[in-house]
Amino acid sequence: MNGDSERILENTARDYDSRLGPSLFAPWAKHTISGAHLRPGDRILDVACGTGAVALAAEPRVAPDGHVTGLDPNPGMLAVARSKSASVDWQQGSVESLPFEDNQFDAVTCQFGLMLFPDPVGALVEMQRVLKPGRHLVTTVFDDIDNLPVYRILAETYGQVADPAIAELLRAPFSMGSRHVLNGLFAAATIPDTELLTRREDAHFASVEALVLADIRGWFPFAGIDLDETVTEKVIAAAGQALKDFTAANGGLRFPVSAHLVIATKRHANGRIRQQAI
């Protein structure tokens, strides 16, 4: 990767962190961490750590003698994460081949990453492999987009104004919102009897423009998509009309976002897992 590519990734990660982090992702860290049942002295692995929302929330839970590892394939995300904490062990790597021994961690978390992995079943197998028996694997995924009208309308707007491929990209994070899909993935990973817990948090953006730019500046470039200003302005205008019922008098948006948490307790060293809800 050349210097220009690295700068693009890091700049996009900074936009992701500032535009999407506090508005959408950070409020979920407390749910993910709660499901991990952390104790002082624990070793936790946060997979697809991004810019560090879950890993940073875990630090005080395992202090003073615990250890937090954050793993992500994106060097830009890790650069931003490292700027926030030098005590977390930030590592670049792939979830499909975790660079850790069996039964190494007291908790493994993955917040809003599973639905974007090329091989989600392989990822689940690897995450439970490195988990200690008797401890917890927590995965958090967004609900189905049909249950999230703001993002459904926004995806439709991209399809009409910009490009159907961008609409599909926006739908991708919600692709595992179906219980049937999740149950199938966990069954394929030999993680039986899946039980899901659905939580809700409010997402908040200062304006429709802020909502649109959060994805255009903080996510789409990771997929190689760079919308020009003309198309961006058309999307903002169309989204403003389409989302007017969700927009407050001051122009801001606050809307509920639901997500599923799956909490799995590893019962045996051979990797068999039974799931429980918090």
Automatic annotation (TrEMBL):
Pfam families: Methyltransf_11. It comes from the Bacteria. GO terms for molecular function: S-adenosylmethionine-dependent methyltransferase activity. SUPFAM superfamilies: S-adenosyl-L-methionine-dependent methyltransferases. Residues 45-138 form the Methyltransferase type domain. InterPro entries: Methyltransf_11 (IPR013216), SAM-dependent_MTases_sf (IPR029063), UbiE/COQ5_MeTrFase (IPR004033). Keywords: Menaquinone biosynthesis, Methyltransferase, S-adenosyl-L-methionine, Transferase, Ubiquinone. GO terms for biological process: menaquinone biosynthetic process; methylation. This is Ubiquinone/menaquinone biosynthesis C-methylase UbiE.
